[in-house]
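Fold this sequence, please.
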Amino acid sequence: MFVPLSGADITDLEKRTIMDVLNSERLALGPYLEKFQEIIKEYAGMKYALAVNSGTSALHLIIRALDFQQNQKMIVTPFTFISSANVALFEKGVPVFVDIDPHTYNLSVKNLKEFIDKDYKDDVTAFMGVDVFGVPLEWDEILKILPDKIKIIEDSCEALGGEYKGRKLGTFGKAGTYAFYPNKQITTGEGGVIVTDDEEIFDLCKSMCNQGRGKSGEWLISERLGYNYRMDEMSAALGFAQMKRIEEISSKRKEKAMNYFELFQSEERVVLPFIPQEVTSQSWFVFVLRLNLDWVSELIHIPTWVRNFDLPIKIEGKQNRKEWKELINKIRNILQTFLKKLSEKGVESKNYFYPVHLQPFYRKMFGYEEGDFPVTELISSLTFAIPFFSNISLEEQNYVYQIITDSLTEIKNETFV
């Protein structure tokens, strides 16, 4: 059996809706774009919604609309999809990383407070809040900690439908985003959307996504620098049809997640996703497991302070950093060996995420190295996404569980040095 990592949930409704677009021969800037934006706006409970061609484009437009300038700094997590940080670079600004919580995998409130207390300066003008894997940030605390001058962007590209204390994710900042890649809760193929209550942000983003045209939309007249970030009509039609089914899709994904929780509840060699009590509706994007460090320590020596996640803000000292890098590489080698076993048995699985600060060009630009954000580095070496999508069958989930448990047992016979 082969079980893919993800799969889109497409029905006859989506196919008929797309055929409606093809039959109309209106393939751009048509009625389905308006319909899709309207249904997203109503779902999020926001005044404005603007559909664009990707979540990355959505984030870029927001940061430009907020007048983020060259050499200004933006706080962001190093444990995220890379575009969350890259948009600061697009504007010649600087992403400033704050390490994560080892349970939620979101940016740590404790570390954020320490950064604001010790390192905050006026050149820090933006905060990119990422709801990683659909799990909400601790928004109440974050809003208390951040100075008023810092403008908040909420990257909820992985969190459509999620709620924190009854409030939809994507609505805690000046503007928020959702994304619709085929592995997301709903899909438009490629695509994203901006939601906001701020008319000025909406107008600027709408202009910039369409080559800088003004409100009049006059053909070939640009009032500002813009981009071709528009969403096409077929993508919008697909998104509209998917949103008509959002409750059904969300219910199916929750059911599949609960199946995994039941299957893995007694498997102590892995750690299940942590859902904070403040979450009133969990948005299931991916299902990420973590190798249990206590189990990993049976294969290689891991100091107690590492097993307990009693980690410093930064690993200090050349020798300590050398030892830390060696340890992380050993753990990552165990994870990669394990993932290879899954792949050989037909279970597609991927490491989620690789630390942004250790991406090759971030190392080159900023001089980052192992030890700079130890919680992110450790979590990254342990976490992996398993097959998860709306229509995964219970038989497939049982197979995934069996292959994972079998492979964990086989790993015990491997030698890691």
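Residues 12-246 form a domain with the Aspartate Aminotransferase; domain 2 fold (CATH 3.40.640.10). The two ends are 33 Å apart (CA to CA).
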